[in-house]
Amino acid sequence: MATLIPSSPLHSQLSILSSSQLPSPRTLIREISTAQAGAKAKQAAALKPDIWEIPDSQDEEERLPPAPKAKKAATKKRAAPGTTTKITAARKTKPKADVALKAKSTNRDVRLGLKSKYFVDSGDIQEPEKAKPVRKTATRKKTAASATATAAKSTKKKASPKGKSKAFAETETSKAVSPTVEDLLRSSPPPGRRQWTPVEDTITTAFDLQSGEASAELTPETDNFSNKIGALAYRSESSQDRELLTSAQPESGFGLGFTRKRRIEMLDLTNHKTQPKEFAPKAKKPKKRPATLTERSSAFYRKDAPPSSAITSFFSSTKKTTSDSSKYPTLDSATTKRKRNDEAVRVELLSPTSAKKRLDSQGFFFGTLSQLEKDLHDSEDEYSGLISPVKSVDTGPNTAGFNSITSRATVTGGLWDAANRDLDGGLLRGTGNGDVLDTESYQPATIPKLVLPSSLDLPKSEDDFYDIGSVLSTKLPSPKRTVIIDLTSSPAVHVRASQPLDRTQSPPLPSSFRRANSIQRIAPRSISPSLPPRPSISADSSLAAATARSLTTSSATAAAKKRQTVSLASPPPAPASRTTQTTSDIPKMPDFGGYLKSELQSELKKYGFKKITSRAAMITTMEKCWLAQNPSAQKPQGSSEDSEPEPAKRPRGRPRKTASMESDGTAEQTTTGPRARSTSKEPKKTTSKAVEPRGRPASKGSDDAPHATEARARSASKDRDVVANPRGRAASKALDDTLQPVHAKSRSRSASKDPDVASREKTKSRGRAASPKVRKGKKSRSRSSSRGRKKQVTRVKKTGRDESETTELYAKISEAVRVNGKSKDSFHHCILMYDPVILEDLTIWLNTKGLGTVGIDEEVSLDDVRGWCDANGVCALARQTQRGLERKRY
Amino acid sequence: MEHRPIPSFYCCYLLRSTVRSKSLYIGSTPDPRRRLAQHNGHEKGGAFQTARLKGELRPWEMLCIVHGFPSSIAALQFEWAWQRPYLTKKVGDNKGSKGFTLSTRLSNLHLLLSTNAFGSWPLTLRFFNEQARAHWEHMKKPLPKGIRVVFDPRREEEVRGRVSKFAATGVGGVQGLDITFQPLELHHKKAAAILEAAGKEATCGICHGSLDHNEALVCEHTFCEHTAHLRCLSANFLGDEDEARLVLPVKGKCPECRKESYWGDLVRELSLRTRTKPQEAAKKAAAAAKRKAAKGALAVDEDEDESEDEAEVEVSCIDVADIPEGKEAEAAEASMMLDGFSDGELEAMTYAADAFETFLG
């Protein structure tokens, strides 16, 4: 932006001029005038006083041209001193020779601001000498009045140049310049001054900053260089700039190089930002090429799959993918690549059965490249041997996996049977026609892809699957082996259906297929665990998962209930247990012992059991579950309901009171505790109770007899009530347990090492077992296994005793304790000494001796004793700790 | 089965975090000072709950304790019931609340002490904190007669010389708690003396039958030499009405002096006399004497001979209160010294012992 120096007062300019080193034009002119005699006065008068010249009265009279109009206009237009005036072009121009300046036209142009006196044309050059003498002569000839007038004029004229510089003096047409002047003019002009003050601009234009447009009328005359320079000033349309301009204006219009009246030309700056770009629609990101197998295989089934495919038309979808693809043009290479990839990834959707058939027809080879090459180049027998199903177990490490696959794939009986295994872990396969894979008939190309339904007149199933088998039957040659599976009549699906391997992957098969082939066991024991998943099946898994689960349960239940004979070509010994029975027969419990551990776990999981690590425990649990579901089924003799899940555990609790125990008169410690359920051998004592005398026989004679009999009668009646309680098996168990009250924390009745207890036992004269009995109306509580085994039904309930009875009992116990507390080792002594009392021992003693001394024949349970201890502040504890260990510290 | 003696001290305590007042902890220990140090990280063996959050809950303060349990098993049972009052069967139908606040804990404590299972025991509830006691006083239900409630705040700090690590110091509070047999010292001596004097001719004051020393209970009150059988006295304590249904007495009046005594105190002495071995008794007495001496000791001689004679042990076991007037200063000096006493001090101590014996005799 050009910084314009404002017009300074004349005296300041003259001071600047005085300091110049170059000869002043005045001197030059004088020289010229002296050299030339015939210089016209007009020229000299036309020439305005030079800015470099100090205004002189004579000179002014001689020089100032008679241009009153212009002068008057100039004087009128002259701005007040001190105000900013636009610098005219004349001020800006550099000084030049007086000859040029004296040209009339130039003088006029310079005065008007059109031209600078320094830039005069050669044509306009006039002889300054002519001007001079004209003036002189004119002045001399005039009279005094005219002299005064002229003087006044001259004074006026003198005054006029104050506002104006001499540079703006009109220069009349300069006459012919002397050759010397011309020469000077033509010669190189004097070098421009560096320090120069711009020429005062006579043109006054008002610049309206707010409007943004120059309100002043810019005439062509005013469109001089100074205006152009002024127009170079940058002006933006932003408000900030406006503010700056407005703020700068009152102080000085120089901050941004603007004067108030400067017109600023609007620049037509093209703002690239405002212009809307016309760019192509953003192309879609190129799809990431699928890298993994899963992506590749499933790329076709993604939402953004290309629409141009037969499969999408098969599945009616509302999405219109074609429109999306057409929006954004893509490169041809990319589309082709994508298409190529899609085509490569595109997987035809086959029904599971079809997929299986296809898989059966395919051959798998495992091994390194060299091995495969070697195998392929080998004889046909070896080749067929590799491909053909393994009839012998050991066929080589390379073929193990292959055989397993093929054997698995060729299992007849449906997909459910695909993973049927025998006891040894080998897969079962169908023996159909022999070889699994017939290389001759292997024609992968013959297996067609799924075609549109219109081309096939096939009934639509629920899931809209078209099985390739039906397609083959209509158009294509059927393979050698036709595997038809009949789910409804297939026992193969039986328990083997519980295999988790393909359960979720195999969809339900239509009923049109019937199983024709039998199942033969193939026993490759070494099954490669690193078998790759079958993509075709995996593609169906999502669709068939739900149905598969239902099929699983249904098959399992069907297997349990409905059994059909299966003709086995060579029934293996192990799966014999899996032979089915007719439904009419009583369902026989399957041999859970032949199940694999994983199978047992899966079965147990169905029943909601937690994971059991022990195989034996799993088997027993499964047997129990089965028996519970099939109560009519016979119990397998080998199994016992009451078999302990952990037989390794030592027996706990008080020994059961059995007949043998009673006869021996000693406590059997070997039998299991309260949870021992060997009641299968024990006769039900429901009826025996009424017969057998309960409680201790009366020792005091007849006085106690009626009391005892009454007690017995009461107990018998209440036992009958217990029996009548409809709890099924639980009730029967309760009966057994009533004889042997079981406390939740009862411990095993190992031989007591306590001498006191031993002495008490020795004092038994009645030969009764040490095990206490539950009082009437009580059910013993037993510990239930956390593993989901059949819960021990017995429970202890204090429902049959009132508070009064309880208090009476407690009182009796207290009395018994006190009465028998004379010795130092008595319970009474221990209680008085605040010694901890063992509950079992106290109970035994009470039942054996203590209560007898107070005339009570009833037996108390551990709960009763515990309650009594709590009521009397006796510190009682069990013999064993909660961890089942023997308590060492008392 | 060999029965253990009743421990000198076993308590269940209630801790509260000084950092977070809502954190409470219930435990049991025979030595509350040591246990508190463990909880606060000064000693090894603290509990996980009190050391959790990287020890941010430390230090812990002991609000109250319940002591006087006749056995460690009894204390553990009480602790378990106090921690889980909603599970224990000892409370009967009144299920304890499951809260974890101080008021809840104390209310559960009140519930447990009100039951027959724990109320029959010779327990003492001792508060060390004013706030805890204020909470307790809101419980308007009375406790069974056998439970004693004591407010024992820290009253005086006193450290004389070098003391053992967890010895009692000062007066009041946990620090001043006496966990030794020292409170039974007098009674024990008295009973021993009486029975020794009686010899085989000791008879029961109730049934007037022969009295076995192992079953003889001696009245704890001074000037009363009543002895009786364990069962006879219990029956006497129970009375005719309660005898029918109860077995364990709580307290009763001596048939002779008619002063009330707690059954637990009497039995405790009997346990100490009959079930504590003589060597153990001597060791315990020596340990008690050491603690007492260390309590007022100014300086400790490093060349102290740890083995002490029985005479010194017996002398040092005498309570300062038994020292006659005029000899208190000397007795104090003697108690402050760990090492052997000077002749004059010994004479003073022997004089005090003789005076006591004559008093008893």
From TrEMBL, chain A:
Its main location: nucleus. Keywords: DNA damage, DNA recombination, DNA repair, Nucleus. GO terms for cellular component: Slx1-Slx4 complex. InterPro entries: Structure-sp_endonuc_su_Slx4. One of its GO terms (biological process) is DNA recombination. The keyword DNA damage applies. Residues 69-79, 133-143, 154-165, 765-798 have a biased composition (Basic residues). The keyword RNA-binding does not apply. Residues 144-153 have a biased composition (Low complexity). Residues 95-106, 679-722, 751-764 have a biased composition (Basic and acidic residues). Residues 630-640, 660-673 have a biased composition (Polar residues). It is found in: Nucleus. Residues 1-23, 40-106, 123-199, 238-257, 275-306, 319-339, 494-542, 554-590, 630-805 are annotated as: Disordered. Belongs to the SLX4 family. This is Structure-specific endonuclease subunit SLX4. It comes from Sphaerosporella brunnea.
From TrEMBL, chain B:
It is found in: Nucleus. Residues 8-92 form the GIY-YIG domain. Pfam families: GIY-YIG, SLX1_C. GO terms for cellular component: Slx1-Slx4 complex. The keyword Nuclease applies. It comes from the Eukaryota. It comes from Sphaerosporella brunnea. GO terms for molecular function: 5'-flap endonuclease activity; crossover junction DNA endonuclease activity; zinc ion binding. Its cofactor is a divalent metal cation. InterPro entries: GIY-YIG_endonuc (IPR000305), GIY-YIG_endonuc_sf (IPR035901), Slx1 (IPR027520), SLX1_C (IPR048749), SLX1_endonuclease (IPR050381), Znf_PHD (IPR001965), Znf_RING (IPR001841), Znf_RING/FYVE/PHD (IPR013083). Residues 204-258 form the RING-type domain. Its main location: nucleus. Belongs to the SLX1 family. Keywords: DNA damage, DNA recombination, DNA repair, Endonuclease, Hydrolase, Metal-binding, Nuclease, Nucleus, Zinc, Zinc-finger. Catalytic subunit of the SLX1-SLX4 structure-specific endonuclease that resolves DNA secondary structures generated during DNA repair and recombination. Has endonuclease activity towards branched DNA substrates, introducing single-strand cuts in duplex DNA close to junctions with ss-DNA. GO terms for biological process: double-strand break repair via homologous recombination. This is Structure-specific endonuclease subunit slx1. Forms a heterodimer with SLX4.
